Structure formats: C-alpha cells, structure tokens
C-alpha cells in the first residue's frame, strides 16, 4: 500500500492521519512533518506514526500531502522544490492556494492535486472535493480519491469551483457547530439544564443529518413535515426569516469564498 506523508500535522493533518488509521491503514504506512517538536512527540505518542523531516518524507512517501496554513506555504515550497519531480504526487489541502502556485515553484511536470476536505474526516464522514492540476493524470486523481474515500465522500470539481467549495463544505462544519451552540443557548434561555439542552440538540442534529443523507427528499419537504399549521415551528421560522438568517448565511458563505480567493492572490506575485 502507498506510503502517505502529511506535511504539517495540525488540526486537518491530524484529522487525516487519524481517519486513515481508523480506515485500516497501518502507522508504518503513514508519516508526518511538524515544525513544533512537542506537537510531533504528541502525535507519535498518540498514533505511533513517525514524525520525519521533509527530505525523509519525500524519499519514503508515494504521496505528499501539504496541510500547513496557506500563509505558511512559502518555506514548504522551498523545501519541496529540490526533492520532488514528475514522479512525485503532491496534494494540497490548503484553502485558496491554486495548483498553479505549486506548479510555478516545483520542478516542471510535478503532478499536483488540490483538495478541500473537512474535519469530519475524524469520524470517517469527510466531504472532500478534488481538482487536478496541469500535470495530474486520471491515475493521480484515482489515487487521491481512493485515499480520501476511506475517510468520507469524494467529489471531483473543476479547480475554478474550489473557492466556493472551501466556503461551503471546507468551512461548513463550523456553521453547523455555530448553530448547535446557539440552539443550546436557547435551551438555557428557556431554563433547561445545559446537559439536557445539549443532548436534545445534538441528537436532533444527528437525526436531521441522517434524514438529509438517507431520504431522497429535498430539505424543504423535510422542513415542511415538521411545520404544522398554526403549530410551534412556523412561529420559529417566522422569527428566523424576520432576523434574516437565510440572507446572513448567503452573505457569510460569500465572504468565506472571497477570503479563499484572497488567500490565493497573496501568492500571485511569486
Ligand atoms: N481546519 C480545517 O477545518 C480545514 C483546514 N484546511 C486547510 O488545511 C491547512 C491546515 O489547517 P489547520 O490544520 O486548521 O491548521 P493548523 O495550524 O492546525 O495546522 C498546521 C500545522 O502545520 C505545521 N507547520 C507549519 N509550517 C510547517 C512546516 N514548514 N513544516 C512542518 N510543519 C509545519 C504547524 O506547526 C501546524 O501544526 C490549511 O491550509 C487550511 O486551509 C482545509 C480544510 C479544512
Ligand atoms: O478556515 C479556514 O481557512 C479553513 C479552510 C476551510 C476550513 N478551515
């Protein structure tokens, strides 16, 4: 089985490593690089995966997955440039960074695949979107899709859609956590104990997510089924509409898309 190295084992890097272990990969098939030694020791202790330097990662791994913050990409590209080439496979998980940036900075012909995953990788429920760069072949995409499908669902999209994907599914879990947090607060407002409010809302979220994923029904139909004439739900919906929650979500997701575009532009002059 292919050896995978994650370059930058922070939140998403760890989610990927942990998801791959859950999916049955062995610690020996995985590597990571990490600039903070304490973080490196913590991960090796927790998962039994070796922390290495970039040159060892490039030597031993078939797939190099870049998972540093977009703002930290420059030194990683400098380190990778002498170590990779047309026989390598570089995968970027970085929000906003186009494959063209990697292609400009790495040796001619280096295959690059851009991916936007999300943290539910930790529980094998990731949504990942993949886009090939100029030198990535269908076989490279197959390898990346196989890797990611072991930790969730995978979709191929044109790279021009990746900023929108980042705003939707990359950041998406945060929006749901935010809503759940607010709904738990509402339970507190109504006088429920916090633990009770948490259980009620988290299980409602799990149930609603399962219905969305498993029933063929549109979300509007599912919502209508909860909304009885002159009942309780319609009173709540009226307040949500009055407070512009739908418009707020449209504006929020558009702002996230714009930030993804901006993160990519920061490296245009390289
Ligand atoms: N957190 C999330 O939900 C998602 C994050 N992403 C992308 O994943 C990337 C990482 O995000 P997070 O994990 O949230 O950030 P993070 O800050 O938690 O992780 C980045 C890790 O990279 C390490 N690092 C930085 N420079 C390094 C270098 N030169 N060599 C080795 N290690 C280095 C840092 O010490 C840190 O542990 C970002 O580009 C982000 O856009 C993509 C999808 C979802
Ligand atoms: O907030 C961020 O920039 C990253 C990318 C998508 C989710 N988290």
From TrEMBL:
<feature type="domain" description="Pyrroline-5-carboxylate reductase dimerisation">
    <location>
        <begin position="159"/>
        <end position="263"/>
    </location>
</feature>
<keyword id="KW-0028">Amino-acid biosynthesis</keyword>
<dbReference type="InterPro" id="IPR036291">
    <property type="entry name" value="NAD(P)-bd_dom_sf"/>
</dbReference>
<dbReference type="InterPro" id="IPR000304">
    <property type="entry name" value="Pyrroline-COOH_reductase"/>
</dbReference>
<feature type="domain" description="Pyrroline-5-carboxylate reductase catalytic N-terminal">
    <location>
        <begin position="3"/>
        <end position="96"/>
    </location>
</feature>
<dbReference type="InterPro" id="IPR028939">
    <property type="entry name" value="P5C_Rdtase_cat_N"/>
</dbReference>
<protein>
    <recommendedName>
        <fullName>Pyrroline-5-carboxylate reductase</fullName>
        <ecNumber>1.5.1.2</ecNumber>
    </recommendedName>
</protein>
<dbReference type="GO" id="GO:0055129">
    <property type="term" value="P:L-proline biosynthetic process"/>
</dbReference>
<dbReference type="GO" id="GO:0005737">
    <property type="term" value="C:cytoplasm"/>
</dbReference>
<keyword id="KW-0521">NADP</keyword>
<dbReference type="Pfam" id="PF14748">
    <property type="entry name" value="P5CR_dimer"/>
</dbReference>
<keyword id="KW-0641">Proline biosynthesis</keyword>
<dbReference type="InterPro" id="IPR029036">
    <property type="entry name" value="P5CR_dimer"/>
</dbReference>
<comment type="pathway">
    <text>Amino-acid biosynthesis; L-proline biosynthesis; L-proline from L-glutamate 5-semialdehyde: step 1/1.</text>
</comment>
<dbReference type="GO" id="GO:0004735">
    <property type="term" value="F:pyrroline-5-carboxylate reductase activity"/>
</dbReference>
<comment type="function">
    <text>Catalyzes the reduction of 1-pyrroline-5-carboxylate (PCA) to L-proline.</text>
</comment>
<comment type="similarity">
    <text>Belongs to the pyrroline-5-carboxylate reductase family.</text>
</comment>
<feature type="binding site">
    <location>
        <begin position="67"/>
        <end position="70"/>
    </location>
    <ligand>
        <name>NADP(+)</name>
    </ligand>
</feature>
<dbReference type="InterPro" id="IPR053790">
    <property type="entry name" value="P5CR-like_CS"/>
</dbReference>
<dbReference type="InterPro" id="IPR008927">
    <property type="entry name" value="6-PGluconate_DH-like_C_sf"/>
</dbReference>
<dbReference type="Pfam" id="PF03807">
    <property type="entry name" value="F420_oxidored"/>
</dbReference>
<keyword id="KW-0560">Oxidoreductase</keyword>
<keyword id="KW-0963">Cytoplasm</keyword>
């Amino acid at each position: 089985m292919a050896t995978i190295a994650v370059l930058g084992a922070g939140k998403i890097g760890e989610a990927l490593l942990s998801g791959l272990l859950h999916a049955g990969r062995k610690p020996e098939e995985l590597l990571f690089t990490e600039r903070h030694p304490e973080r490196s020791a913590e991960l090796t202790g927790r998962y039994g995966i070796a922390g290495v330097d970039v040159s060892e990662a490039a030597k031993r791994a078939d797939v190099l997955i870049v998972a540093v913050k977009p703002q930290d990409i420059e030194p990683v590209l400098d380190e990778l440039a002498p170590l990779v080439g047309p026989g390598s496979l570089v995968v970027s998980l970085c929000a906003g960074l186009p494959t063209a940036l990697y292609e400009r900075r790495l040796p001619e012909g280096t295959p690059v695949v851009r991916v936007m995953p999300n943290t539910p990788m930790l529980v094998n429920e990731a949504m990942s979107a993949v886009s090939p760069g100029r030198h990535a072949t269908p076989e490279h995409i197959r390898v990346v899709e196989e890797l990611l499908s072991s930790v969730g669902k995978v979709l191929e999209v044109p790279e021009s859609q990746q900023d929108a994907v980042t705003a939707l599914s990359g950041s998406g879990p945060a929006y749901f956590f935010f809503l759940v947090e607010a709904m738990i607060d509402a339970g507190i407002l109504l006088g429920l104990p916090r633990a009770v409010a948490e259980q009620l809302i988290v299980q409602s979220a799990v149930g609603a997510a399962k219905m969305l994923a498993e029933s063929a029904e549109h979300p509007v139909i599912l919502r209508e089924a909860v909304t009885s004439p002159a009942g309780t739900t319609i009173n709540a919906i009226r307040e949500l509409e009055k407070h512009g929650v739908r418009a707020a979500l449209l504006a929020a997701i558009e702002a996230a898309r714009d930030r993804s575009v901006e993160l990519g532009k920061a490296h245009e002059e390289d």
